[in-house]
Amino acid sequence: MPFASDFQRSVTDLDMSAARSGIFTAGIARLQFEPENLRRFNEVMQQVLPGHPPYTADQIVGAARRVLRAAAKRLDVPFIRIRMRRAAEIRAALVDAHWQVPAPLEAVMTAIVGYLDDADHALIPRDTPVVGQLDDAILVDAAMDTLRAELDEYAEFCRFRHAEAARIGLAASALSTDREHWRRECEHELLLEQQLRRVRDSRYGETGDAPAGFRIR
């Protein structure tokens, strides 16, 4: 299951302002971007978040500097790590035969996974220390407002599927449970909870006075 129990659902975004990037770059003499790769990165960004202004090389380098400075001070830098966990969720939802992603969201997910899998044209070489996946993380971060609800639902579906598999003693992969079945089960569970709440809140015997109590002597 691709969901870690300690997964952080929200973190502070990196400030992408080049003016605040500083000049210290720990462990890397330079980051050089190929114009074609920067163009492709911004094209994918438009697929992920239409209307977003194109990023400049200075903005990406500025973000990389800040990540590297924090790493050099032995500070935790969760931005890349957490976004790449989200990327794993995107990939899992996309390839899961039992989870039907709506077409508009599928297009966004496919664009992200396609970029992640094209290492030859990555904006930042993947073997760059510390920041080798920063461009990937920025793309994933840009998609979160669009994909968060879908990924949260997929996480709930996975938990449901694993619980059902454990209940009947089968591997989760052996179940035919799909998204529609999960939705129906959620609806039934909600209806049952509403019925139980009405029963708990109701009062019996309101049409007449209750009989007086008695004691055994």
Radius of gyration: 25 Å
Quick one: how many beta strands? Answer: 0
Q: Please summarize the sheet with the most strands.
A: none
Distance between the termini: 64 Å
Provide the residue-averaged pLDDT: 78
Describe this structure as you would to a colleague.
The protein is mostly helical and 217 residues long. It has a domain at 18-149. 55% of the residues lie in helices and 0% in strands. It is built from six helices and no strands. The chain has helices at residues 35-48, 57-72, 78-95, 103-116, 134-168, 179-201. Helix 1 (35-48) runs antiparallel to helix 4 (103-116), helix 1 crosses helix 5 and helix 3 crosses helix 5. The termini are far apart. The model is unreliable at 1-25 (pLDDT under 50).
